[in-house]
Structures are given as C-alpha cells and as structure tokens.
Amino acid sequence: MFSLSLRRYLALGYLVSLAQASCDNQAPLDPGRFSRIEYDYIIIGGGTAGIALSARLAEDPSLVIGVIEAGTSHAEDPLVDIPSSSVVGNATYDWNFVSTSQRHAQGRRVSLPRGKMLGGSSGINGLAWGRASKPEYDSWSVLSGDGTWSWKGLLPYMQKAENFSAVPTNPYPGISGGQKARVSHDIPQEDGYNGPIHASYNSVYFQVVSAVVETLNGLGVKTNAEPQSGDATGVFNTLVSVDREEGVRSYAASTYYCSRIANRNYRVLTDAMVTKILFAKSEGPLTAIGVEFSANGQLFNVFAKKEVVLAAGAVQTPQLLELSGIGNRTLLQSHGITTLVDLPGVGENLQEHLFSGVQFKLKQGIQTFDLLRSDPAFAAEQRQIYQSTRGGLLAATDNAFTFLSLKGLVSEDRLHELLALFDLEDHTKSTGPLLRKQNALNRRWFTEDNVATVELIQLSRGIFNPTPNSSYVTIQGGIVHPSSRGSVHITTQDAFVAPEIDPAFLSRDFDTEVLLDIIKYIQLVAQTEPLASMVEEQTDPVPDSADDEIIRYIRAGSGVCDEMVHGTAAMASREDGGVVDGSLRVHGTANLRVVDASIIPIQMACHTQQTVYAIAEKAADMIKNQHIKPKYSG
Ligand SMILES: Cc1cc2nc3c(=O)[nH]c(=O)nc-3n(C[C@H](O)[C@H](O)[C@H](O)COP(=O)(O)OP(=O)(O)OC[C@H]3O[C@@H](n4cnc5c(N)ncnc54)[C@H](O)[C@@H]3O)c2cc1C
User: Fold this and answer.
1) Where does the chain cross the membrane (predicted)?
2) Are 81 and 249 in contact (CB under 8 A)?
C-alpha cells in the first residue's frame, strides 16, 4: 500500500543490521546435495504458507522436510525490513505478473505483484494484519462441506500465528479508554500472543487520520476497537505485521524460517524453480513421488516418501498443477500434456479485490507522508530518528481502514437497484455450482450489516501525480466481494513462461456500479466536517464528474488493484468445480496437497496474510496428525 522510493531517503550503508542474527549470511544450499536427500515432505514454494507450514512440520524431528523456493533470501535487506519501504515492481523481489488486456477496463493490462523471495508475498506486502468477519469463514464449511473450516475452526490457528502487542495503544477517536488499552482481561480478547508474526499498532499518526475517522463516525460508521473479534466492519486502526521494538517487517522468512534454520531435518533450497510434480506409474489413485526442479541451469529430481505440498501461491499453484497433468483435459491436450486427473476447476474461480481512488489536495501546512517526498531536511531527520529509535515515519504505515456493508454504503432504493442488477447477472451469466453457491452467500451478505462488501483505505499521501510541496489524502475504495470471476492458465509447457492471468475485472456491471457508489461516497466523506475543512481541492477524478465520467475513470484505471488473488485451486467438492477437499488434498490424488491462498473458496473482506498463515498452521496440524495414513481423495 505505502510506497516510498526508499533509496532516495535512506543511505543504505548507514544502517545497522536489521535481521535476526541466526538468519544472517546463510550459505545457499547446493541443489545437487539437496536433491540427494530423501524427504518425507517436499513443499513447493517458500512463501507465506510454504514457510509457515514447513517450519511447523520441522518441529517433529522424525520428519525430514525439504522446501524449494524460486526466489532468494533477503534476510537483512532494509528494502524488505523497513516498514515504509516498498519493493513492489522491483524484479529482484517481485514476479511482476501482468493481467491479460482487460476488456471491461479499457484494454489495460493490470499489474499483479507477487513476492519472489524467501517468505513470498509476506516479504513485499503492505503489512496490514487483519481478519474477515465470522460469517465469511463459516461460509468455507458450506462451500467445502467440511465443518472444521469455519471461524471457530480457524481462530485458534490465526491466534497461533500471531504475537499481538498492546503497546503502543490504539489512539483512534470513537474508542473508549478501556478498549484503547486492550490489555484489560474484562475485554474479550481474540488476539494471539505467542505466535511468530508480530502484530502491532503504529506509533505515529497524522492529524488527518483523526479527521477522517471522526468524519466517518459522523456519517454513521462506528469505530471498531476489536476488528479481530469476528466483526470486521466499521472504521478501525489496522494492526500491521511489524515488530515494533525492532521497527521491522515481521514475515514468514524472518520468523518461522529463522526459528527452524538450525534444525538438521529442515532444508530450504532457494533460487530453484520447480518445473513439475512427479507421480508414480502405478494403478490406483495418483501418487506424488517428488518434483523436478531447475537450478543453476540444470534439471534435478528430488523425492518425497510421504507427500508433496504445493504452496506456490494463487498464480503458480494452478500453473504447476496444469504443467503436471492435473487440470482441464481439453486445455492440457491443447498444450500436449497428458491428463492425469481431469479437473476443470484448476485455475478457475480467480477472485481479486478491485480498487479505485479519489485524491484530495490538503490545505497548506497539513502534514502527511508527502513531506518525505518534498522536504529533504525533514526526510533526513526521519532517517536519523529511524536510526536511533527504530521509530518515526520510516517505521509507520497508513492505518485507517474502513469496511462497510453494501446496505451501509447506499440508500435503500439504490440497494434494491443494485440487488436487481446482481440477480439479473446471476441468472443470465452465472455458470457452475460453485459460483451459484458463492452468489447465494454474497446476495445474503449484501443485505446484512455484519459482512463488508466495500473497503476504504485512507492514505495520508498523494498517489496520482502529486505536485511538489503539497500534501494529500487519498481514499482508495474497493469492492471486496466482487461478482466478476477470472482465471489463470498455462499457455505453454514451459514452466518459465508466466501463465495467462485474466481477472476479468468489471466483467459484471454490478461491480462497476458498486465502484461508482464507492467513489461518490468517498467524495461525500471529503465534503463532510471535520475533514472538509482540511481539503483544498479534489484532484482525481475531476470534481463534479457525471456518473458516466466516473465510470470511465474507473475503467481507465486511475484505480489500483489490491493484490489479493485467491481461489484458483478452490476448496470445494469435485462436482462443484473444486480442486482440493477439506484436507487440502487435490481431488483424484493420494498425497498431493495445496496449502496457500489458492484454496480460499470465496473472496474475503480483509487483507489475507493472517488467513493464509492460519491455513498453513491448520494444514501443519492436519498433516502431523494424518501422515501415517495417506488417504485417497476421490
Ligand atoms: C503487493 C502485495 C501487497 C499485499 N498487501 C497485503 C496486506 O497489506 N495485508 C495482507 O494481509 N495481505 C496482503 N497481501 C496478500 C498476502 O500477502 C497474500 O495473500 C499471501 O502472502 C499469499 O501467500 P501464499 O503463500 O499464498 O503465496 P506467496 O506468499 O506468494 O508464496 C508463494 C511462493 O512460491 C514461490 N514459487 C512460485 N512458483 C514457484 C516454483 N515454480 N518453484 C518454486 N517456488 C515457486 C514464490 O516465489 C513465492 O515465494 C498483499 C500481497 C501483495 C502481493
């Protein structure tokens, strides 16, 4: 979310070491030696889920765990560690995927960043740490047919991943003193306190943040002091995955991985690309025996006695399934790949949050992150503060997040209009049982208060061509339960060629119309006190635009995409178009699982890293408990 060109502000050599000592200067493993070890479990992808899962499995000394990661380790890298830094778009850290030309978004190709490094997207993400609302997790049990995938079933794992720090406290307007502290045991606490990932509040807030929160309160949006409690609606001070004492990003590689690095039963190979999964040539359910990978320009095979786990993320997990012969038979045949399991759901059901935004120039003298851009002396002072205290603006992020139900966004009449449009498109365009089940859930949520359809992110800075010496507030608004569905599929047998990603943005008019309402709502927020008194002018889109001009603005792409690709190996029954069952095994296989964001069956009204860590934590327990008896998933 927050992107500073850090190199401009930071003298890199000036920094002391930021990483945990135990993770520094690890010599990369030799791929040949790695391949000669026989593992119990091989995990493809050392990203958010892959590292969390593998580190938990390695707690059992009787298991030998191998992880293969395409990217490299960035331990001790300030561009990753410093919270205000961003490496999105930098090919050293980011796969830099782009979508196909989007027909309903004026043909633009939308950038879809994904982390290419040890720790995966947890190393490049915007640090927001949160959960969706309870009914959204409960819907997973409806879609998967497995009752353990629910709020109750996942909460212990979200807590297991989390190390919540109540200091500094939450200073947001609209929160009572007791709730602010969040340390009293009288208050229901849903946070986790002993997990690897640090979750903390910011220590610096701009005046404009309070103004936005108070304005929203005045418009009837409550401040939510406990957004982790199962009700994630309202405006709240988002937690961030920052180790506040050290002032650094807390992510899969710096925590889960570092804690296990000395284990002799844990081997993590970086800079190695898995090219396909290997299967036994026996009768019966398909049994994975290992993987083929490429490193230093050479191909290697490595073998697993028990299971292979795919954790390559929502773009590359379906790619590897298809390259390995699991997917839609017609598609595989067209690329000369023998079908081992005909599973048409692979790569389908792609869901992504789509955002647009409105930028406002603020009156002279109001401070925002823009000062780092336009005032070199101020930026130097902030670097100094970071050096000496690990605090200040370089350790800070944007924090005011608002999640609104659809009925909280629009009038009753407009809600009826939108629902009629949703129903029409559902009847005329929806195909497949999974989508119909998702639509039934979404349709209900649109009329209720406790699940958000809309997210607003307040950024204390300009992002659309900000001018020097000016300060801005930008409010991004997105639809977090979109009705458009996209896909990701291979176009060749070559694992090094990125798959074709088509999010089908705005392919449903419902999504476009809701985004229109979101832009209008943001404009209303800026015209309402106390924020109105701080705003000098709206810069983007042009103020007082007619509806059709705003829609053109949305399609033309001043908006941004929110990097939450999900659902491309959905946890749902085979008949419904799912790819994995409730134990995360790929349908039609004996011992191949998917553990990453691909399995999330329906888009969530939250930022998903905590949910992905919880999936990995739950999978680790399932695997530890079940590995003795591999079971056929039909
Ligand atoms: C730019 C950005 C900002 C985000 N901001 C937030 C935020 O603020 N808050 C939040 O909660 N969530 C955020 N997210 C989402 C969140 O980070 C992801 O949902 C989550 O990290 C996904 O985890 P994963 O394990 O599914 O995939 P990843 O963490 O992406 O892991 C996949 C790993 O597999 C590796 N890999 C892929 N193919 C191969 C192969 N063939 N061989 C070997 N390795 C391979 C990749 O290099 C990568 O390391 C953001 C995501 C992005 C990209």
Assistant:
1) none
2) yes
* 601 alpha carbon – ligand 1 mean position (Å): 17
Compute the distance from residue 71 Cα to the ligand 1 centre, in Å.
12
CA-to-CA distance for 558 and 463, rounded, in angstroms? 10
Position 417, amino acid: E
Tokens coding 105? 């978004």
Annotated binding-site residues for FAD read 274
Do residues 37 and 64 lie in contact, with contact meaning Cβ atoms separated by under 8 Å? yes
Give the residue ranges of the annotated binding site: 274
Per-residue pLDDT, 24: 64
Query: Which among 527, 539, 462, 544 has a CA at the least distance from the CA of 211?
Result: 527
Determine which residue's CA is closest to atom 18 belonging to ligand 1: 609
Q: How far is the CA of 566 from the centre of ligand 1 (A)?
A: 10
Q: Is residue 367 part of a domain?
A: yes
Asked if residues 279 and 340 have their Cβ atoms less than 8 Å apart, the reply is yes
Between CA 609 and CA 128 the distance in angstroms is 8
CATH number, domain of 210, equals 3.30.560.10
Strand, coil or helix: what is 363?
A: coil
> What are the distances in angstroms from CA 402 to CA 182, 236, 610?
20, 6, 18
Alpha-carbon gap, residue 264 to 61, rounded angstroms: 8
Q: What is the pLDDT of residue 188?
A: 46
- Before 318, cis peptide (omega within 30)? no
| Closest residue by CA, ligand 1 atom 9 | 128
Say if 447 falls within a structural domain: yes
pLDDT at 1: 37
Q: How far is CA 38 from CA 23, 306, 320, 592, 621, in A?
A: 25, 10, 21, 17, 22
Beta strands in 454-563 (DSSP E): 454-459, 472-479, 487-489, 500-502, 535-540
Position 272, amino acid: A
User: With contact defined as beta carbons under 8 Å apart, do 50 and 69 qualify?
Assistant: yes
For 341-384, the pLDDT digits (tens) are 999 999 999 998 889 999 999 999 999 999 999 999 999 999 99
148 falls within a domain: no
- Residue 57 resides in a domain: no
Rounded CA-CA distance 528/517 in Å is: 17
Please name the residue whose Cα sits nearest to atom 16 of ligand 1: 609
Span from the CA of 210 to the centroid of ligand 1 (angstroms): 32
* Residue 81 token pair: 């560690």
Q: Can you tell me the distance from the alpha carbon of 205 to that of 267, in angstroms, rounded to the nearest whole number?
A: 42
Low-confidence ranges of the chain (pLDDT < 50): 1-21, 183-188
- Our count of domains for the chain comes to 1
Query: Could you identify the atom of ligand 1 that is nearest to the CA of residue 293?
Result: 42
Contacts of range 433-438, beta carbons closer than 8 Å, 24 or more positions apart: 433/575, 433/576, 433/577, 434/143, 434/345, 434/349, 434/570, 434/572, 434/576, 434/577, 434/578, 434/601, 435/349, 435/485, 435/577, 437/142, 437/143, 437/576, 438/143, 438/601, 438/602
Structure confidence at residue 168 (pLDDT): 87
What is the three-class DSSP state of 456? strand
Please give the radius of gyration of the chain, using alpha carbons only, rounded to the nearest integer. Answer: 24
pLDDT digits over 425-457, tens only?
A: 999 987 899 999 999 999 999 999 999 999 999
Residue range 583-609, pLDDT digits in tens: 999 999 999 999 999 999 999 999 999
Domain that holds residue 239: 162-251+351-556
Strands 472-479 and 354-362: antiparallel
DSSP state of 199: E
Q: Is 302 helix (H, G, I), strand (E, B) or coil?
A: strand
